[in-house]
Amino acid sequence: MKKIVVPVSAEAMSRLDFEENIEGDLIEFSLDKGTFDKLWGYGIFERLNNSLDICIDDCEDESITESDDLKVAREIIARTAEDTADDGNIAQILVMADKAIACKTGLFFFF
């Protein structure tokens, strides 16, 4: 199962590095194969990769943790939400990007 994760604090982000998270540390969005394939088809990950010089793909872990990069990612996600008739998955990722910005943590992609 693929996941997108946002730590709710700097401490939670530190614990994530060591896989020592406690309950309440993470906001998680699990993607089954169908959901992942749909999001992949929208091109959201490709746009994030190209804009932020990262590598989100089918079998890579990646993160966006810099404040400016999170803001760019948020705009890409918001534009993708506007451009698609998605069933709420992109909206969920947008909420997570907003939370990562508010918490000053990051978006983590465990694929």
Describe, in short, the structure shown:
This protein is an alpha+beta fold and 111 residues long. It contains 5 helices and 4 strands. The longest helix has 17 residues.
CATH class: Alpha Beta
The count of β-strands is 4
How are the strands of the largest sheet arranged? 2-1-4-3
CATH architecture: 3-Layer(aba) Sandwich
User: Element order, helices and strands?
Assistant: EHEHHEHHE
Separation, N- and C-terminal Cα atoms: 8 Å
For the sheet with most strands, the description reads: 4 strands, antiparallel
Key phrases:
single chain, alpha+beta, Hypothetical protein yfbM fold, 5 helices, 53% helix
Q: What is the element layout, followed by pairings?
A:
Layout: E1 2-7, H1 10-17, E2 26-31, H2 33-42, H3 44-52, E3 61-64, H4 67-83, H5 89-103, E4 107-110
Antiparallel strand pairs: 1-2, 1-4, 3-4
Helix pairs in contact: 3-4, 4-5
Describe the structure.
It is a single chain. The chain has 111 residues and is of the alpha+beta class. It has one domain (2-110): Hypothetical protein yfbM fold (3-Layer(aba) Sandwich), CATH 3.40.1760. The protein has helices at 10-17, 33-42, 44-52, 67-83, 89-103, and strands spanning 2-7, 26-31, 61-64, 107-110. A four-stranded antiparallel beta sheet has the order 2-1-4-3. Helix 3 runs antiparallel to helix 4 and helix 4 runs antiparallel to helix 5. The protein is globular.
